[in-house]
Amino acid sequence: MDAIMTSPVSLSRPAVQRSFWRRHEKTLAPAMFLSPALFAFLLFVVWPILSSVWISFHEWDGLGPKIFIGLDNYRELFSDDKFYVALVNNIKWLILYLLAPVGGLIIALFLNQQMPGMRLIKALFFFPFVISQVVVGVIFSWFYDPNFGLLNVVLNAVGLPSIAPLGDEHMVTYAIIVAGLWPQIAYCMILYLTGLNNVNPELIEAARMDGCKGFPMFWNIILPQLRPATFIAVVVTVIGALRSFDLVAIMTNGGPYDSSTVLGYFMYEQAIFAYRMGYGAAIATVLFLIMDIYIAFFLVSMLRKEAE
Amino acid sequence: MSKFLRFATTAFFAVSLSTTALAGTLVINSDQSDPAPRKGMEALIEKFKKENPDIDVKLNVFDKESYKTSIRTWLSGESPDVVYWYAGERMKFFVDRKLFEDVSDVWAANKGAEAMPSTVGSVTVDGKQYGVPYTYYNWGIYYRKDLFEKAGIQQPPKTWAEFLDACAKLKASGVAPIVIGSKALWPTAGWFDYLNLRVNGMDYHMKLMAGQVPYTDKGVKDVFDKWAELIRPGYFIENHASYTWQESQPLFYQGKGAMYLIGNFITPEFPADVRDKMDFFQFPKIADQPMYEDAPTDTVHIPARAKNKVDAKKFLAFYMRPDVQTELNSVLRQIPTNKDAKPSDDRFLQAGYKMLSAAAGTAQFYDRDTDPSLAQEGMKAFQEFMIIPDRGDEILTRLEARRKQVFKQ
Fold this sequence. Notes:
The structure holds 2 protein chains of 2 kinds. Chain A is an all-alpha fold. In chain A, 74% of the residues lie in helices and 1% in strands. Chain A has a single domain, classed as Orthogonal Bundle (MetI-like fold). Chain A has 15 helices and 2 strands. A two-stranded antiparallel ribbon of chain A has the order 1-2. The two termini of chain A are 29 Å apart. Chain B folds into 2 domains: 178 residues, D-Maltodextrin-Binding Protein, domain 2, CATH 3.40.190.10; 193 residues, 3-Layer(aba) Sandwich (D-Maltodextrin-Binding Protein, domain 2). In chain B, the strands form 4 sheets. Chain B has a 5-stranded mixed β-sheet with strand order 2-1-3-12-6, sandwiched between helices. Chain B has a 4-stranded mixed β-sheet with strand order 8-9-7-10. The interface between A and B is medium-sized, with 33 and 34 residues. Chain A: InterPro entries: ABC_transporter_permease (IPR051393), MetI-like (IPR000515), MetI-like_sf (IPR035906). Chain A: It is found in: Cell membrane. Chain A: Belongs to the binding-protein-dependent transport system permease family.
């Protein structure tokens, strides 16, 4: 566009021949600035996605020849009990992880007051988000250990029997989600604390004059103003739940007998440990499509909001 | 620590370390990462260097579990010159894909078949040798003599009935009869192997490993029935799915559990204060079958893509020598494959050595004898069965579906 506008100008002054760069500066510069990122995006994101979709149509052990088998991997996947175990676990993650924004909000409201030493307390609450997921996983594994874990010490102290959350197929996924919620709540709390800083005090003052207080005050006046924070907290949490992998890998390796596996871990295990690259790629593709649904929903709602 | 962590770190080092071998450089990748074996290996490599001053040896040591996955990358890409690996089906997997070098000439030149008669079969495919076995070890039931005495058990059980009786007495005396840690799955396979060998014998076991017998076969169901006789009365420790084999050991040493079916590699781990209370017995007889044993064999191989095969063959020949194997196995506390090498005088080792010498035949181990991807599913199935024995039939049906898929060619 700019190039078209500038070219007549240069024609009108043929004596001063402007360089190619000068004439196309406004189109070339952005292209050049974008190109490294675009190149990296194509190489590290788009190409791997396409190639794993391609691999998912093959049977391949990672070493031998690739055998094209069409949709067989997908057919097998949809009749594989383990796939549904992983899918259901992912849904459990998704639903229970939404406790993180709620918990974060409650803690943020509680911590949002002027008091000496409050900074330190806030830092302590934020602490779990700073440590690595690997460390979180290891700490919780110890916490749950049926032999020396703190959990059973507490349970026994109040007269309850010992449990082994990571060795029981009914408890294991919830036990891992609890570990995941610990840092996730801290993260949401920080988002809400920043959000609370931006709440307009005049609105609160006005509401108070109209006799509003307590829960109605929170629900009608404060929460709507926290909408941007809520939005980000939910988005980050949902993505975190869908790509849950590290805690499962560290705490249980998907066990006992796959009962705590999630799609991400199932894929990793099939590809790396069962040497079925094609099947692993098929799982990856399905997970990718599930994420796409969410991302599409996210984009639509964002665009709609911008249109308002 | 978890499989994932180990895999991630090794994959990283594998890429950065395993590359580039110049002429005269011998790159060796080893999975002997435990402190004692590692030291022993390093001492031997010093010895090799002294004997071959012109060869510059480069040793890379990796964690055992992640080594199993990263070796595939090395063999198909930039290969080291020597890799540590396992005999049997595990080796054949790479031989079939033409990733291991034929080293029959090294065997011929060093009269290997005469020196290592018991293990030559485990590295032979179609009459050719593809590696050198340097050590093997026995499996068996390690137990606490003091707890047996306390429970009133006169001598270690020899038959299944005696074994069940011992379990009942131990349980009545307030200790868990059998310790196991099934979190990393493989200890469960020891039980399956032994029950299958004792109930159905070696031929049946090897056919099952080769995918020629369905898992829904009556023989396998019989094995599960025998296994259930231990699971249902609660003879295994509680919550075994929460522990790896390392994490389960303290229960054994603290006297909370009395027996552990495991490889001889547990014996160096015995703490000094309970070492004298430990002893060992052969897995009891069940059906009318000769006494077969699990005896996993560890090997060294030359990758087909290795750059310095000449020196690598020197190294393999070095590993065949009786003096080298004597030294190596005294550190590993395992049994040398060369019959002229001396096994150490450790009492556990001597007992194991005696047992293996009298064995009617040996298997490698479940996850070394069968297809790797089926092994993973199989061991998960065993873990599930050990927690919920009522699902036996359902578990075997599922495993059978997997077997059909893996062995469909």
